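Task: complex structure prediction.
Instruction: return structure tokens for all chains below.
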Amino acid sequence: MNETIRLTAYRWMTLTRTFDETMVAMWKQGRGIGGTFSERGHEAVSVGAGLALGPDDVVAPMHRDLGTYLLRGMTPERIFGNLLGRQMGVSGGRDSNLHGLGDLDLNIIGFISHIPQAIPTALGAAMAFRYRDEPRVAMTFVGDGGSCSGAFHESLNMAALYNAPFVLIIENNQYAYSTPLSQEMKVADIAGRLPGYGLAATTVDGNDVEAVHAATTDAVERARAGGGPSVIEARTMRMLGHAIHDGAEYVPEALLAEWESRDPVRMFRTRLINSGVPETDLDALDQAAATEIAAAVRVAEAAPLPNPESVSEGVFA
Amino acid sequence: MSDNFGFSDTLQHAADDRTLTYLEAITEALFVEMDRDENVLVMGEDVGGDFGGAFKVTKGLAAKFGDRRVINTPIAELSFTGMANGMALMGLRPVVEMQFADFISSGFDSIVQFAATSHYRGIGKVPWVIRAPSDGGIRSGPFHSQNPEAWFVHTPGLKVVAPSTPADAKGLLAAAIRDDNPVIYFEAKPLYRSIKGDVPGGEHVTEIGKAAVRRSGTDVTVIAYGTQVHTALEAAEIVAADGIDVAVLDLRTLKPLDTEAILEAAIKTGKVVVVHAANRMVGVGAEVAALIAEEAFESLDAPIIRIGGLDTPVPFSPPLEDAYRPNAGKIEAAIRELADY
Ligand SMILES: Cc1ncc(C[n+]2csc(CCOP(=O)(O)OP(=O)(O)O)c2C)c(N)n1
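Output:
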């Protein structure tokens, strides 16, 4: 990463973290509607991978990839609007929490709840690019939990078979809801499964934004050059419960403490400072994030809910 | 209810008090049936260990029956439902928890192609139960609020039940577990902790295929199931103040349908409203209305009114979801329309 992109990455990571902390606090205060998902701990993955894409590439993020949505141009106020069921939210109040944050103008395919339907969908986008000979890439994400499903394996077989310009990031955050990795699969090395499908696969430290960015940039460039699909397993940790109402008592505290000591935002900040970036520059980015998020919340909370009369509109195109 | 997404850890165990919540009644049925028959086992995402599932329905089961009988599965609906098929063919009685009814579509082939047709094709009996937490009104969004019963009611070879009371939640689950066929058991998330009722202790089985009269009345009959039974009773109370006497029939079982009870109820009042939370088109209500029109046309004094969710995906935002769902006001209006007819 060069200096500019490092500061860009920090900007999106701190914005993502601030968004997440604000959201969690609001829900705890009863200012939320329904449930929602925290992405605390995933900032380096969603930002590092997202920044490897060009503007014409397509991405299909999931419920813990807030950073990717933000850096692709989805504004915090639209996302808060979605979380709060507002008309100005991304889905106009139709879809909830971090589901349904799709905007094809931003080359974002909205998340479908059924895990891991983002994978075949993104693969389809990649196949469309291949079909039209466009130098575009499709990227998507899946959890360790979702990597156990049939659609994961079926799609990856096809991705390899058709040499699709496709990049999959496996966010191995140790838990699928209450289920630890050891109860999801017999192996600990998810990426190790992929060569069997004829896929290039690597494992990176998912809390290190530069490592994630380097690996995904390689994968994206290879895909763009016709080199086919790749899979990157980013090892990280889900730092809060599965959803807002889950206290995650089933996660050992020592495990959380270990990952907390490698907090992706703090780790990157320290690295930037050690490499000579003035701390005041980073403070300014943190401050800007706080201001932007506070303003977004104000806008979203004041925005009107949808008109109930509109409920039946838009079922068909 | 709307602010907790249906999740909570507050399970009260009532040892001698036989008043249980709907959720506690489901849990109790699992304890009793697993105790009674060692072929009964439970599986699904997050159902095991101390956790006890997304809604805590299976909490305590693993501690009592062990990991061999309370199996945590990966996220693999098609395959663990397929696995239930094989287990059932070998004489086990798996009770599969879909984390949300919505995700049942990910297991569709295993259910409608294999399980539903197996006995007819001479393969053998497939005695499993899929517990499917369904229904909305709790701001869970389009993929965590659905009522997909019509897909299965349309499929020959499956039984489908949808309890509305704690006693039936227990009794119908026990019956489903003991049934030699694949049974889909739609439990209503909004009822989990919002209603309590008397539940018989020990073994309690409610016959599959029998509707129940929840309120008798002479002017209009409302036919409903699941959460909408309660909404219908609410509407009946409202119009009772104006002297309109409403009967409420709870279908309880959607397949096989209790055609006798439906016709009897329709004939008694000659005026019928059918209500369900699932969207209207080609829903269970359409079948009930068609049955009455075919078999009891001459007893009708007015056209049958169907009320359902709108024919849209289930929206999230409160004003949209409220517009989508049936409610006491919509039912009340239908009752008054028929009463005046
Ligand atoms: C087909 C399907 N089954 C069940 C669920 C319910 N569910 C939502 S997220 C989740 C756990 C996902 O774990 P993982 O894939 O590891 O991602 P993480 O939430 O840890 O980021 C489950 C079981 C779902 N969304 N889709």
